[in-house]
Amino acid sequence: MHAPGVFRLCSLALIVAAAVLRPAQAEDTVQAEDTVQAEDTGRVVELLDLPRHAALMRHATAPGTGDPDHFRLNDCTTQRNLSEAGRAEARETGRLLRAAGLAEALVLTSRWCRATDTARELDLGEVDPFPPLDSFFRDRSREDAVRRDILARIAGRKAGDPPLIMVSHQVNITAITGIFPASGEIVVVEVLPEGTAAVRARLSP
């Protein structure tokens, strides 16, 4: 029979070993996640070089749902806006895309302030408003026209054109892809000859 002191020493050794191993395992997990993120971002950048492809990006985090009843398009104080965390998300997405080789893009955006601010925080080049990207959350009758106009714009992208990023809203992206994107998520689509969209990649914030 072993002495009680031996059991105590063995238990202590196991506890110390676990404490030493946990940080190393955590570090390995973080490194693996970083590698996957880099690979995903690289794939997105490759796809954006292809004709008839574009990145549909939901605006970054803006707490709440919809917009206040007193919403006015040209007054950001009447709208739901990005949080500081949302601005940081957009800046980080822009950084990752640049690190993967996307030097510059044409960034089209909804005219809602949270979308326009997301587009600017990406810091990927020229930002232009594109009304079909405006939210139709309050007016579902616009859905078909919105889908048609966005798909037509993507289909018109030719080889040699700047990569196209379109910053919009959940309802718009869902109408085109069937996906309910997270805030700040990118969904890369290709518009097929028959006019429908095929999802080619996704990039989480």
Automatic annotation (TrEMBL):
Ordered alphabetically, the record's keywords are: Signal
Q: Where is the signal peptide?
A: 1-26
Name listed for the protein in its UniProt record: Phosphohistidine phosphatase, SixA
Which top-level group of life is the source organism from? Bacteria
Species of origin: Tistrella mobilis (strain KA081020-065)
Q: Which InterPro entries match?
A: His_PPase_superfam
